[in-house]
Amino acid sequence: MTQEEFVERSQKYSQTLYKVAYCYLGNKADCLEIIDESIFVALKNLKRLRQAEYFETWLTRIVINQCNKELKRRSKIYFGDIPEKSQEFYDNLPLKEALKKLPKNLRDVIVFRFFLDKTLKDTATLLDIPQGTVVTYQRKALALLRLELDEEDTYE
Amino acid sequence: MNNRNDEFDKIKNTLDNDIVFLPKDDYGGIMKKLDKYKTRKKVVNSVVSSFCAFALVVNIFPSVAYAMYDIPFIGDLAKVVSFSTSLSKAVEENHVQYIGKSQTKDGITVTLEHLIVDQKRMHLFFTAIDQDGNSVMSSFPEIKWDNMTENDKLGGSLSENGNHIKETNDKSYWVYIKDFEDTTPTSIDISIAAKSYSSQNLDDDAKYEEYSMFTAYPHFSSENFDDELLKQHEHLVGAHFDFNIDIDPQFIETNNNYQRVNKTFEIEGQKLTIIGIETYPSHIKFIVEEDEQNTAYVRGLEFYLENEKGEKINQLSSGLISESNPYKLNQSIYYMESDYFSNSEKLTLNIEYFELLDKDKEFVKVDLKNGEFEWLPQGMKFIGVSKGISDNVFINGAVQEIPCYLIEFSYDNNYQNSIMEVKNANKDTTILTMTAPTGFGGMYKTESLDTENFINFYSKKNGTDNSTIVYYIEEEKYSDIFYMSPSFTGWCEFYANPIQIPLI
């Protein structure tokens, strides 16, 4: 992929990248910084992208990477391994905060499935987990967040 | 809390209305940064520590962590094991064997640090570093002992995902889990291969790529390995480390840890018996038997146990969570965290979720050549079979394309929607109640009745009323007639207030 193609495709995809980053970080300024950093990382490693058709998936993963790095930097305790919290803990937080406090695997699924409206299959591909696991995680996460969203769309 | 859906809508609207577009000028800035990066590469790279890369790799690619987690931490085992209540308790109770054996070869040092072991399972904690203290790649350890059976050799080493990673400024711990299926060893041989990355300057993706190649290489079975392939992969051969450890007998001595329960109860018209509870320091085996006269199979059961002290014992969050008893197929074994050190006197079973599959609808015979089906799930229509290539199949961490047959159906979204209505109508007590199959699952049986999985299947909505679903089957496994499994044919209940059954 040439740098020109890179610029064009990443520009087109930037809205989605922003949504991803927002669900992790929760404020616009941080998101823009992370996207900037992610574009830099992606460009730096562009030669490693062997199949251009997976560019968007690859770029999304880099953004998640960068968000996790940022979250890790913010809190030594955080890095996916949040001790199990009670239902009351989540109930007492605004949704945006509760989302950030979800265990990483659950949050990843919620972000892709419901904030980005990805199908089960795409979510599974993006996170490299089986579709069945996506279903399990989304059920757990929706229950914890007390969200009643359509879970059914594409999984059989 | 009651307005969570409103909050959700609000966030989504904000996201949709916040238009973000990266102006081309920004790329100019990024290019400049890239040039700067190239000139200071050495400085930047020396700051990048390898465990950080590993942590990310394991988080993003759960398959890496599937058999092994990388837990960086400075010498404090208690913190390393905080992902598991059972292991934490074991550490608290000094149920830990310190090993402290170290070997150095080709500039790489592997140190076996600790072992948490009981009759059925061991967790091995070790580090692998280069002379600069950077964490290096490690193969899955191979564990051997006298009289080990074929089952023992297969014993699982699983982790759900990369959620068990902690940041530290010091060591990167690997945790390897080995099940003792049939025999409990008193002494074990451990072989580990370890290798530095081709460069410490690699980024996370490149490290992952090297790591996948390294672990894919069968380090310990070169006798079965093709010479040509060996030659091709010579650069992936790591330093080999062989250790022997005598297991401290106090950790594996036989205790009377099996408690027969024999408690029968009925749920949604199906009879279940809790046969027994087998308790070890690292886990509990909880054995449930389905009555052979039942009209449906239990396909989903989520529960926890609670003792008289109010301690909640959950199903394991990682590793093997449940399996069928290979000798008695109507028995299922669920793996739970352990209350071994709590000395519980009473235990109550709390069932939160239950899913059934009608026995007469387990498989449906399909004749694809003639488009004939015994029956089809509600609203589903057969469209046809075509030849194609599977897309997006991740195998060993890489996207691969496989020649396939594509079996296509259409289905009616309205049926799915009606299920959602049922769900909403019963939201106080029930998350979901379904009474007919909604589609086929990812499993099928061949004509000779071998069970296989489709390599991929997915569906997409076509407008508001219809969707299509495509099942991918490898070319060589295709036959005109086979058996597909309906994804659902019974009930699925979520109990807001768990059903409580006193056990002991």
Overview of the molecule:
The complex is a heterodimer of chains A (156) and B (504). Chain A has 156 residues and is mostly helical. Chain A is built from eight helices and no strands. In chain A, helix 1 packs across helix 3, helix 1 packs across helix 6 and helix 6 packs across helix 8. The relative contact order of chain A is 0.11. With 504 residues, chain B is α+β, with helices and mostly antiparallel strands. In chain B, 21% of the residues lie in helices and 40% in strands.
List the helices and strands and how they pair.
The complex is a heterodimer of chains A (about 160) and B (about 500).
Chain A (H helix, E strand, L loop, with lengths): L2 H23 L2 H17 L10 H20 L12 H5 L3 H7 L2 H12 L4 H8 L3 H15 L11
Helix pairs in contact in A: 1-2, 1-3, 1-6, 2-3, 6-7, 6-8, 7-8
Chain B lengths: L3 H14 L6 H16 L1 H7 L2 H11 L1 H4 L2 E5 L4 H4 L4 H8 L4 E9 L2 E10 L3 E10 L6 E2 L3 E3 L5 H5 L17 E8 L7 E9 L8 H13 L10 H6 L6 E8 L2 H4 L5 E10 L2 E10 L4 E7 L5 E12 L4 E2 L8 E4 L2 E9 L10 E12 L5 E4 L4 E2 L7 E9 L3 E3 L2 E3 L2 E10 H13 L14 E6 L5 E3 L2 E7 L3 E9 L6 E6 L5 E11 L2
Antiparallel strand pairs in B: 1-7, 2-3, 3-4, 4-7, 5-8, 6-8, 8-9, 10-11, 11-12, 12-16, 13-14, 13-17, 15-16, 17-29, 18-19, 18-28, 20-23, 21-22, 23-27, 24-25, 24-28, 26-27
